């Protein structure tokens, strides 16, 4: 079962779900270190949000478009950081990694 974690970013609660190593490395190869040499951070952030955020559902479904329509740069920036911090975390023996960030 995929790990989950709840974080709070700019007063909104987001539920994150872990992804596989293969999924994440393919994503970074495609957008951060592509063979073409042209990094695309926006597409990376959009795919990361859509692939790892499971709630709120509207954010999970719409990704960066949700924040673009609100002229919000701060929240997706911090949310991507939270996801990148969460993905390599390991489960603690006998418990979950669920923590809340402020």
Would you kindly provide a brief summary of this structure?
With 102 residues, this protein is an alpha+beta fold. Helices cover 46% and strands 15% of the residues. It is built from five helices and three strands.
Characterization of the model:
This protein has five helices and three strands, in the order E-E-H-H-E-H-H-H. With 102 residues, the protein is α+β, with helices and mostly antiparallel strands. It has one domain. Strands 1-2-3 form a three-stranded antiparallel beta sheet. A hairpin with a 2-residue loop joins strand 1 and strand 2. The radius of gyration is 14 Å and the shape is globular. The C terminus is likely disordered.
SSE sequence, one letter per element? EEHHEHHH
The averaged pLDDT comes out at: 90
Q: What characteristic shape results from the CA principal axes?
A: globular
The tally of beta strands, per DSSP, is 3
* Structural domain tally: 1
The radius of gyration is 14 Å
The fraction of residues assigned to DSSP E strands is 5-15%
Structural class: alpha+beta
- Strand order, sheet with most strands: 1-2-3
The DSSP helix count reads 5
- Terminal Cα separation, in Å? 26 Å
Low-confidence regions: 95-102
Largest sheet: 3 strands, antiparallel
The helix fraction, in percent, is 40-55%
């Amino acid at each position: 079962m995929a790990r989950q974690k709840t974080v709070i970013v700019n007063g909104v609660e987001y539920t994150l779900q872990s992804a596989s190593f293969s999924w994440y490395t393919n994503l970074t190869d495609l957008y951060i270190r592509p063979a073409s040499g042209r990094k695309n951070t926006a597409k990376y952030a959009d795919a990361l949000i859509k692939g790892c955020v499971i709630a709120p559902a509207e954010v999970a479904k719409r990704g960066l478009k949700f924040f673009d329509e609100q002229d919000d740069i701060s929240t997706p920036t911090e949310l991507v950081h939270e996801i990148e911090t969460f993905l390599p975390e390991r489960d603690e023996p006998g418990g979950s990694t669920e923590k809340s960030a402020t």
